[in-house]
């Protein structure tokens, strides 16, 4: 996801958002990788705005004290999980450094501090914070280690990028991102309680909204992301359903993925956008 989630920017309050970089362990099918002198970085093919991440504080208010473990045997729960993960990465042949870092973790040093000092992953700028991740987003070796690791234990794994020390800080039930068809949305809109409770976001530009719009939508133009992105969790409740719309459903899908990566639990992309709504549901809505 582009976004998603996937995210290795420290999180807030920057006047100018940092470029959106993904650490090397992510392996989204819709991303492509470029070589880097230390660690490949993935960039989204179509996503062009530069999203900041959320502050870490909503997830973990204090840093847990880590201890080193060679592995874990935590069983998966019945529901799919997302993990809040931080890590550091060293070169495959840097065995001396790896051993030293393991010993320092065992002695009580914080993994995030060590990541800033020693990691070769771009996430080092944020103390190795990768944000919330789910299965299918990471290279297999990293995923297996993360999803079997005991909470707060630092575990070691090896991938094609080198050696990782990773720590799962928290876990939660996996969030939902799915399309909703225009006719389904139309039925919901007829219910006054839906318009009162639902969080509806239109990411089109003001000149587009002037041509055609639907009731109840808050307009957050994508080109103005820098002004509303850092405040998204103060404007909207991540625990409530959110519906995202654009002209044809492409921009809204990218924003929906980003919202999911920022901790929104249920995100719906309006398939085909307002154009599909006008053509298939309500001809009174202008097309353009």
From TrEMBL:
Catalytic activities: [protein]-peptidylproline (omega=180) = [protein]-peptidylproline (omega=0)
Pfam families (alphabetical): Rhodanese, Rotamase_3
Domain (PpiC) ranges: 80-170
Protein name (record): Peptidyl-prolyl cis-trans isomerase
InterPro entries: PPIase_dom_sf, PPIase_PpiC, PpiC/parvulin_rotamase, Rhodanese-like_dom, Rhodanese-like_dom_sf
Gene3D superfamilies: 3.10.50.40, Rhodanese-like domain (3.40.250.10)
GO molecular function, one term: peptidyl-prolyl cis-trans isomerase activity
Cited PROSITE patterns: PPIC_PPIASE_2, RHODANESE_3
PANTHER family: PEPTIDYL-PROLYL CIS-TRANS ISOMERASE (PTHR43629), RHODANESE-LIKE_PPIC DOMAIN-CONTAINING PROTEIN 12, CHLOROPLASTIC (PTHR43629:SF2)
EC number(s) on file: 5.2.1.8
UniProt keyword terms in alphabetical order: Isomerase, Rotamase
Enzyme class (EC, first level): isomerase
Chain ranges of the Rhodanese domain: 194-286
